[in-house]
Amino acid sequence: MLEQMAAGWRHVFKLDPNRRLSDLSLEKVCQSGTDAIIVGGTDGITFEDIWKLQKRLRKYLLPCVLEVSDINAIVPGFDGYLIPSVLNTDQARWIHGAHLKAIQRYGCGIPWKQLLLLGYVILNPESKVSRLTEANAGLDEEAAASYACLVEHLFKWPVLYVEYSGKFGDENMVRAIRRQLKKTRLFYGGGITTRRQAETMAKWADTVVVGNLVYTNVEKAVQTVSWVKETNLQEKG
Ligand SMILES: CC(C)=CCC/C(C)=C/CC/C(C)=C/CC/C(C)=C/CC/C(C)=C/CC/C(C)=C/CC/C(C)=C/COP(=O)(O)OP(=O)(O)O
Ligand SMILES: O=P(O)(O)OC[C@@H](O)CO
Ligand SMILES: [Mg+2]
């Protein structure tokens, strides 16, 4: 089951099929000691690009999952599929609408045990994902904590993903969210480029996601693995 697999992830890299990465950089990323590779992005995502990246990733033993952002770009053969649902938007399409369409299209062909639902709280209003989903990204700590409470106690979803895509986040916000969570796993992603940033978010997030740094400075990206893994996670609840 993907949920059990993800329970062991402390650090993951998110690779964007719409961006170029040399074979050498890919090798460094896959041999870095990270726990898994997420393939995903928001724009220019095509079936063909995902398929090509999947083929290149196959020679490594690392778990590889696809984060689905487009119904026309779901490539078979991944170890699992992450299904985002954006909580802080009023657009039903990004909460459950696209999901219903996918269910209508794939029906009983969906390998349910290989799916993991991610409840997204998007907090960088400048990010592409925020613009795409028309997220209400200007939350204060109290509002952010309410989303966490909703996910933990009412929805009982497996994962809450705090998404600052492209920008390093506010530690106080992440801590406020974390305080509400006991069973729900917390993913943090956004703007990690330094040791201090990696350690800060690794204190509060069960899983730390590193994306852009792979493309701007792969040597540093590889270092984030030990920066995260050597940091003690604060107790939950
Ligand atoms: C045979 C076979 C494999 C069958 C398929 C079975 C299967 C896996 C079915 C899926 C069923 C299902 C329920 C699918 C959901 C479909 C769907 C399109 C849902 C909508 C998802 C969603 C809310 C998308 C909005 C955007 C979003 C939140 C994307 C997540 C990734 C993200 C935040 C990327 C940001 O990346 P970043 O790199 O920072 O940004 P840029 O790319 O812009 O730089
Ligand atoms: O690309 P960065 O800013 O590292 O963010 C990682 C991930 O949360 C993007 O979905
Ligand atoms: Mg990207």
Task: Give your account of this protein's structure.
This protein is of the alpha/beta class and about 240 residues long. It has a single domain, classed as FMN-linked oxidoreductases (TIM Barrel). About 40% of the residues lie in helices and about 20% in strands. It is built from ten helices and eight strands. The chain has an eight-stranded parallel beta barrel with strand order 1-2-3-4-5-6-7-8, surrounded by five helices. Helix 2 links the parallel strand 1 (about 10-15) and strand 2 (about 35-40). Helix 6 packs parallel to helix 7 and helix 8 packs parallel to helix 10 (about 220-230). The model has no long low-confidence stretch (mean pLDDT about 95). Magnesium ion binds near residues 16, 41 and 211.
How do the helices and strands line up, and which of them pair or pack?
Elements: H1 2-6, E1 11-15, H2 23-30, E2 36-39, H3 47-57, E3 64-67, E4 80-86, H4 92-106, E5 115-122, H5 128-133, H6 141-155, E6 159-163, H7 171-179, E7 185-189, H8 195-204, E8 207-210, H9 213-216, H10 218-229
Parallel strand pairs: 1-2, 1-8, 2-3, 3-4, 4-5, 5-6, 6-7, 7-8
Family: Belongs to the GGGP/HepGP synthase family. Group I subfamily.
Protein name: Heptaprenylglyceryl phosphate synthase
Enzyme class: transferase
Main sheet: strand order:
1-2-3-4-5-6-7-8
DSSP helix fraction = 40-55%
Described by the principal axes of the CA atoms, the overall outline is: globular
Gyration radius, rounded: 17 Å
Q: In percent terms, what proportion of residues is strand?
A: 15-25%
Broad structural category: alpha/beta
User: Cα distance, first to last residue?
Assistant: 25 Å
**And the CATH topology?**
TIM Barrel
**CATH superfamily label:** FMN-linked oxidoreductases
Largest sheet at a glance?
8 strands, parallel, barrel
The multimeric state of the shown protein is single chain
Low-confidence stretches: none
**Which architecture would the CATH scheme give at its second level?**
Alpha-Beta Barrel
Q: What's the SSE pattern?
A: HEHEHEEHEHHEHEHEHH
CATH class: Alpha Beta
Mean pLDDT: 97
Number of folding domains?
A: 1
Please count the helical segments.
10
Q: What hetero molecules are bound to the protein chains?
A: ligand L4TTDIOY, SN-glycerol-1-phosphate, magnesium ion
Tell me how many strands there are.
8
